[in-house]
Amino acid sequence: MFTRITNSLLTDNLLQALDQTQQSQNNALTAVETGRRVNQPSDDPVAASLSASNQSQAAQVTQFLQNINSVSGAMQVGDSALSSAVTLLNRAVSLGTEGANGALSNTQRANISQEITQLQQQMIDIGNTNFNGVYIFAGTANGSPAFTADGTQPDGVRYNGNTSVNQVQIAAGASVAVNIPGSQVFQNAGGSVFQALQDLQNALTSNNSAAAGTAVTKLNTSLTALGEQRVFYGSTINRLNTTNNFLKNEQSDLTKEQTQLVGADLAGAITQLSSAETARQAIMAAGAQINKLSLLNYLN
What we know:
Layout: H1 2-34, H2 45-99, H3 106-127, E1 130-131, E2 134-135, E3 147-149, E4 157-159, E5 167-171, E6 174-177, H4 182-186, E7 187-188, E8 191-192, H5 193-205, H6 209-262, H7 266-299
Antiparallel strand pairs: 1-2, 3-4, 5-6, 7-8
């Protein structure tokens, strides 16, 4: 009777040890498979809470990076478009200066007038620059072209957009404007690109060299105004790049912190898995030995 009680206690102890070993083995296997030591709050309540906060912050950073990426392309295209506009206006100034020469014949001015007409259309095309189907100079009414040639307008062009500006959040508490309405860029009261081109066209068509000279002055004024508008794109692109770099560093830091909070020691987990398997085999062997002793005691 005494021997049977002892064997029963030993068996209970072995079963308890086997359960603990199996749990250790399962934990190690989960850590190896997921790369995490904390897979549910009960594994480490404090680390789990800090991890949740970390993940929330990381999600916000990811969203900011996506916002920056979504507008950076349009900003680059806008800056490039205005660069082309500056080049076009410089050509117009050169042609206007030539057309203001009183020694030119009517035919020569007519030829220059034809090229100015082409430049006017090219400038409208620049004003209708689009990025991924969005007309970047149409304000927030950016689903259709911003400008249309219209002879009923004083400057020969009708603006179809609005004067609204899109804002995009790029960091906590920080947003940036990501467009300038085309009316502000190309029809600025301080120097209207389209009006200056139209005035030059009118002067050349009427063979008026003096008016052509006046138009050239307006072209230079509009060129200066256009350059001032272009500053917006350059400064905004720089800000986006700087913020993007900062956020990427923050994202990297959050990833490292997350690993420290809940990441598994893979080498340690593999060792634990191997040790648990060795312990399980030892327990099973001990259990088999107890069964043999119990059988012998019964036979005796």
